[in-house]
Amino acid sequence: MKKLLSTIFLVSSLVSYAQEFQIITLGSNGGVIDGDISGYLVRNKNEENFIALDAGTILPGIKAGLEKNNFKGITIPKDTEWSDTGYIFREKIKGYLISHGHLDHISGLVISSTEDTKKDIYGLKSTIETLKNNVFNWKLWPNFTNEGEGFKLNQYTYQELNPSESKNINNTTLKVSAFPLSHSNYESTMFLIENNGEYLAYYGDVGPDIIENSNGLEESFKIIGPLIKEKKIKAIMIESSFDNSKEDKGLFGHLSPKWINKEFEVLEKYSGKGSLKNLNVVITHIKPSLKKNDNMREKIKKELLEDNKYGVKYYFPVQGESLEF
Ligand SMILES: [Zn+2]
Ligand SMILES: [Zn+2]
């Protein structure tokens, strides 16, 4: 009996150990369709507080997540004056990690800011500067932050991240380190989220190193490669904005299925041969087509699944969908 109990304990602890991150997709498109663009909520499953990875869309994503019953285990007090969507937005998102200042990664944050609560905005210096100089400056939008032009409403506190330095994310048990990427010669970011020695790697918009004339992706692979080898990376989230029909000169700092494979070849150099097999890879930032009978999501999915050289496990989550790793 004692042995049985200890076996049950071991199995149950392994099961909970196996799924420590929850990711809810707030917006899955790389632009075009307002209300469903680049944003993800992430939490340590043992905690109720989320952080947002990019914030192109927030409220419609929370609403879709609630409709799909994907906020199970999140406490919403019965006597709150706020709607469920409002309560999760205001009270359960504790900070925003912004990969770069492009509109499709910040529009939800900006437009909902008038109803938001006091939170932190994390990013590399270049992202914070963009928000400071070009967004929260009273010209594009009131200054809801603690720095920059004019009267400061002090709702958001900028938290500048130094490259590769680990920082606690306030009001969560998560930590983040940021690594610069090249996105059409503009700086973007890979965020490495740590949860008790396990990791999630979130790539903002990024182009192939060769085309960008950069080593941003390769440098990031030097970091996550050894972690993949040690099975400490639970998932990577990376973009495929276009399908393979997009010519290299039209990529403008983005990836497509064939380029993901080429970059995985570089990643495997640092993670070890065969180590990418069954790695969880979440595809983000698909740019939808408005042409009749042209389903970009299905095309990209088909191309990645039919040429899955490294045997990774692909996910293509849509708005409101929850993934656990
Ligand atoms: Zn984008
Ligand atoms: Zn971008």
From TrEMBL:
SUPFAM superfamilies: Metallo-hydrolase/oxidoreductase. Keywords: cAMP, Hydrolase, Signal. It is an enzyme of class 3 (hydrolase). Residues 1-18 form the signal peptide. Gene3D superfamilies: Ribonuclease Z/Hydroxyacylglutathione hydrolase-like (3.60.15.10). Its EC number is 3.1.4.17. GO terms for molecular function: 3',5'-cyclic-nucleotide phosphodiesterase activity. Belongs to the cyclic nucleotide phosphodiesterase class-II family. This is 3',5'-cyclic-nucleotide phosphodiesterase. The lineage of its organism: Bacteria, Fusobacteriati, Fusobacteriota, Fusobacteriia, Fusobacteriales.
